[in-house]
Amino acid sequence: MSVEQPLWRALAGYRVLTMVYAIAVFATSYEEFARPWVAVAYFAVLCVWTLATLPLVANAAQCTKRFLAADITVALAGILLTLVADTPERIADGRPTLPTIWTAGSVLAFAIKGGWRWAAVASSLVAAANLVERGGPTRDTVHNVLLVWVAAIAIGYVVEVARASERTLARALEIEAATRERERLARDIHDSVLQVLAMVQRRGAVIGGEAAELGRLAGEQEVALRTLVSGGLVPVSRVSEDAAEGAVVRAVEEPDDDSGPLDLRALLAPHAGARVSLAEPGAPVLLPSPAARELAAAVSAALDNVRRHAGENARAWILVEDEPDAVIVTVRDDGPGIPEGRLAQAEGEGRLGVALSIRGRLRDLGGTAELVSTPGQGTEVELKVPKQRTRGQ
């Protein structure tokens, strides 16, 4: 049950009780009114309106803006009709208006429905009507107006806080339910699918031939599925084969909103596979969205170079380090390495993969890309992005 539902029930009871109170106050001083028939007519309308609209103050959905406008009109009309029904002497003496404290119920309906801002508007209208009825500010009038104003705004603020707490609680319950379901699925997958994939990988390696290729694919799917069920870091991704170049390109579908930071781990997680190992911190590695995407693209370019030049059987390792002043990503492979002068020769031939895809991206981010390669011992690429520069992007 909503935490504000008891307020609606209390408001319905308040309106009925204050209607009875207003009629009783009028009945005790009926003979003192200048035009009592005006008051009788108003109370007849007030009684019918209060009882007929009880279903409309049952909850926020039924309490519409049109009802609130009509309800505050009834309250303001009662205050101003006091000038017609009562004598000037009684008004000057500070006698209550026709609706008396029933008016507060109309203001409270605004507060519960729309929060403290709506309550402030309704209280201001009631205050203006009271000042017109009294002919000016008096001590009792100001006291009553401020009391209604403060009470309505306070209740409206409490309702807003309660609604925000309800939304937070609902979100927490959703996350808890999703986490439990993911843990249940992870257990089932671990006991069935992951074990089957691991067995296919082992048997394929033993049999060889086409079975070895099936085993390799099963191993890649095992790593990807294990990463998904264990951390949930892998966003929705697609894998496309470039037949001409023999490269595997993984494109991660991210939201187009560049306003907030991204977790670099989520962008690098799809690269993990049977021949690519990913080591990362346990906490999020946050970078501005453009910087995170450019750094991930540079890592992807480095892995593409491993596949093209080190062979399909080469292994690669990605190490992510979150330093206080910089984020460092190291990509290392066990390929044959790059012969001395080969990069300069490639640039001269117009092949600018390292120069543009890796070093160019890091230079635009204010970072550096260091490449160390020893023939026969593989290649290591260190990508470093300073946090101070990326914060200002």
Strand order of the largest sheet: 4-6-7-9-8
What assembly state would you assign to the polypeptide chains in this entry? single chain
Radius of gyration equals 37 Å
Distance between the termini: 46 Å
SSE arrangement, N to C: HHHHHHHHHEEEHEEHEEHHEEH
Percent range of helical residues: 55-70%
Instruction: Tally the structural domains.
Output: 2
Q: Count of helices?
A: 14
* Protein structure class: alpha+beta
Quote the average pLDDT. Answer: 80
Q: How much strand?
A: 5-15%
Question: How does the major sheet shape up?
Answer: 5 strands, mixed
Q: Shape from CA axes?
A: elongated
Low-confidence stretches: 232-256, 348-353
How many strand elements? Answer: 9
Report on the structure:
Keywords: Kinase, Membrane, Transferase, Transmembrane, Transmembrane helix, Two-component regulatory system. One of its GO terms (molecular function) is phosphorelay sensor kinase activity. Residues 373-393 are annotated as: Disordered. This is Sensor histidine kinase. There is one protein chain. The chain has 14 helices and 9 strands. The protein has helices at 5-28, 36-52, 65-85, 88-92, 102-114, 116-134, 139-191, 193-207, 210-231, 264-268, 289-310, 342-348, 353-364, 387-391; strands at residues 237-242, 247-252, 261-263, 276-279, 286-288, 316-322, 326-333, 368-373, 379-386. The protein has a 5-stranded mixed beta sheet. Strands 1-2 form a two-stranded antiparallel ribbon. A two-stranded antiparallel sheet has the order 3-5. Helix 3 runs parallel beside helix 6. The longest helix has 53 residues, at 139-191. Mean pLDDT is 80; it is low at 232-256 and 348-353.
